[in-house]
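Hi everyone,

Forwarding the result from last night's run.
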Amino acid sequence: MIVDDFLVKTEEGYYCRYGGFYIDAMLPVACNLISHAHGDHATNGHRLMYATEATFAFMRNKFGKINDESTQVIAFGNSFTIGDVLVMFLPAGHMLGSAQILMSYQGIRYLYTGDYKLQLDPTCEPIEIVQADVLITESTFANPSIKHPDFKEEILKLKNKPSNIMLGCYTLGKAQRLTALINQYLPEREVLVHHKIYPIHKLYEKLGSTPLKYVLYNRKAMKEGAPNKIYLVPPLTFNSYFKAKNVLKAFASGWERLQRQNDIELYISDHIDWDDLLFFIEKVQPTQVWTIHGDGRHLREHLRGKLLVRDIYKH
């Protein structure tokens, strides 16, 4: 029997009282399971933390220091018990080390997706799809009007441009994926990375399986030689360069609002779109879907009379 309050949203994060743990807690708690290293999911200061090796590596890069006694490194596919709940981490395909969290309690399987994507990405582990009774899914782009285009067609928009390109992107995950895509599909382009992105590229090289070809940005390299450079910069830097000359500007994202006033639209997202969400639900075969991180109204309407869909309960 499905427990309606198995996982609830609290001020601290998503809480499972049957296991006595939180998932992706934003405030310090006694026990926290971390799906991946992005700042809206991973925080420091918890008494006990469970995450993948890559997630902890990225957190150490961000926070500088993590109490090793508080960390429990979890390998994909290995099960462990917290309280009365059996837990397993599975690849989510969102970024390197990102995990879905599969929880079993009294014979019912609850699958928390965290952020995830189905598109191929050689810089991270491909998503693993399993069946569950309750799917607790992100709904960032859960809208029938949103369909992410083919990433190969998008990256090829940067081909044959007679100018250097300043490419805005998120520092962790997106920048590394873009570098790999440019290396593969635009080998004539040289990748330069911002100094905040550089150490994360180094971690990807250490922990991942796909080599990345790039150099650390310097102004001289950008100005000299052929105009074949693509300079990857974080969002704040990108926004501060709004008056930059002699470069084309693009920002890689699934959000339409981030494409405005740029020279090139570049819809490359690390989240599922509407079609991906429906496909994923079909494969997981849940009897209930609980939505988080977004708006589940379109999904509820689409599956009305077929499948129970609701927002996760707040406590």
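The helical segments are 53-63, 151-155, 174-185, 198-207, 219-223, 235-240, 274-284, 297-302.

Cheers,
N.
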